[in-house]
Each structure stands twice: as structure tokens, then as C-alpha cells.
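Practice problem 4.
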């Protein structure tokens, strides 16, 4: 993967931890901030990690965007899945290069982007979204992250059925996941993984009951909490504010009756 910045490449302009900007590099384009403007064309031909100085003499660093940056900076029509939850969902789903994954719903495409990133270059994500108004934004985000060719976004209601069969994983982030559990069982390979993200425990209970009724095993639910640390000699301590509860993640695997 090239470390040299080219025109049309995405760059993360880093000022400090609280102020970063994901921009597309264009030769004649200037990018304005409260610390002055930057001529983005100056970055063409430079290496990622290069420092660039604004019109006010303030230094920024041009970083190569990673998956986390695309997720945090994407266009939003809906609440996105937090990276801390995405990480657990990916790990427990078993998704990797070559995996075929069904996802619902797409929303703004944060989880879709992450799944596509991990199944490429030979896998594929089939993402169901019942609300057409969200699809255009999701497609733009997938294109911006460079993973759109690994995803089919389908304007369908997944509670009415899943078209794909013999998939490796089904990942759900929607209001009524228990209605999808029978369809997920039919779509999955033997031993395939079903993952469901829900903000409330009532949703979890209904989903777990449906999983057990539909021959899923190894059913478990977790919650992930993440706390940043203020790290400075003599002052190191947990930060005062943190993102607490975002949702519960339930995992299960398909067992086959002979």
C-alpha cells in the first residue's frame, strides 16, 4: 500500500486529539480551519506523516486514514455503532478474508464498512436496509472508505427473509432481531455465527429465547465499556467523562440436527 499521497487520496489532518479532519486531496483546493487554511495540493507527492503548516503558522500532520478514522468521520443519518462494539462483533463473528456475511440494517454504514474491510479481497457483505433514505448516505461512506465493491446494499426488510444461503455469519443491528433469527438459521452454514447488537436488555431476552428455540448453541451476551486514561507524569488517572453503555452484543452458533 502506497505511503505517498496522491491527488484524490483521503488524508486525516491531525491538529490534536480533539481536532482532526478527514479530507480529499485536490491540487487547487484549500481547507479552512480555525487555525488558518491549508493548501492541500502541497501534500501531493509527500509521504503520509508529513507535517503541513497553515496560513497562521500552525502545524498539522497528514496521517493515512485507518478504519477507525473512516468510521468516526463518516456522514451520519443514524447513530453509528461504536468502534469498541465493532471490534467485538468482528472478533466473535469470525469474519475474515473470504467470509460471506449478511448484515442488517445498514444505517449509515459504520459496521458495514468494518465488515467489508475484514472480508476483502475475496469475501462479500450483503447488507439489508428497509429504509431507502439511509442507503444513499451508506453508499457514499462505503465509497469514501474504499470498500464499496465488497458490499451489496439491499433495500429489503430482513424480517421477511434472507436471500443468501451458506453464509459464514449474520450480523444484526435492528429493533426486532428476534424476528430474524429463524431466517438467519436458514442462511447460515453449519457452525456459522449469529451476532446481534441491541441497546436494551428486553431486546436481548427475546433474541436469546429465539436463538435457543431455533437450535443455536453457545449463546452468550456481553457488554463492552471503554474508559480513556489521562496520561501525564504525576497526573495519570481515568478521564472524568466516558462513553458508558452503548448496547449488548449477543453471539450464538448454528447447530445442525441430523
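Answer key:
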Amino acid at each position: 500500500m502506497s505511503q505517498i499521497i496522491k491527488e484524490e487520496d483521503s488524508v486525516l489532518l491531525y491538529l490534536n486529539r480533539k481536532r482532526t479532519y478527514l479530507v480529499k486531496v485536490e491540487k487547487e483546493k484549500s481547507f479552512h480551519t480555525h487555525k488558518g487554511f491549508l493548501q492541500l495540493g502541497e501534500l501531493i507527492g509527500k509521504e503520509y506523516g508529513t507535517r503541513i503548516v497553515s496560513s497562521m503558522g500552525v502545524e498539522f500532520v497528514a496521517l493515512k486514514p485507518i478504519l477507525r478514522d473512516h468510521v468516526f468521520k463518516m456522514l451520519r443519518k443514524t447513530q453509528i455503532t461504536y468502534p469498541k462494539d465493532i471490534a467485538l462483533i468482528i472478533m466473535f463473528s469470525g469474519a475474515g478474508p473470504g467470509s460471506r456475511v449478511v448484515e442488517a440494517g445498514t444505517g449509515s454504514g459504520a459496521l458495514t464498512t468494518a465488515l467489508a474491510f475484514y472480508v476483502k479481497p475475496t469475501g462479500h457483505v450483503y447488507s439489508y436496509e428497509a429504509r431507502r433514505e439511509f442507503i444513499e448516505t451508506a453508499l457514499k461512506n462505503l465509497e469514501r472508505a474504499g470498500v464499496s465493491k465488497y458490499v451489496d446494499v439491499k433495500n429489503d426488510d430482513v424480517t421477511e427473509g434472507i436471500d443468501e444461503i451458506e453464509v459464514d455469519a449474520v450480523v444484526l443491528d435492528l429493533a426486532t432481531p428476534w424476528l430474524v433469527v429463524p431466517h438467519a438459521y436458514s442462511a447460515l452454514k453449519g457452525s456459522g455465527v449469529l451476532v446481534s447488537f441491541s441497546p436494551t436488555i428486553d431486546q436481548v431476552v427475546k433474541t436469546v429465547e429465539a436463538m435457543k428455540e431455533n437450535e443455536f448453541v453457545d449463546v452468550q451476551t456481553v457488554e463492552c465499556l471503554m474508559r480513556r486514561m489521562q496520561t501525564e507524569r504525576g497526573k495519570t488517572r481515568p478521564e472524568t467523562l466516558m462513553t458508558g453503555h452503548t448496547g449488548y452484543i449477543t453471539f450464538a452458533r448454528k447447530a445442525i440436527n441430523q
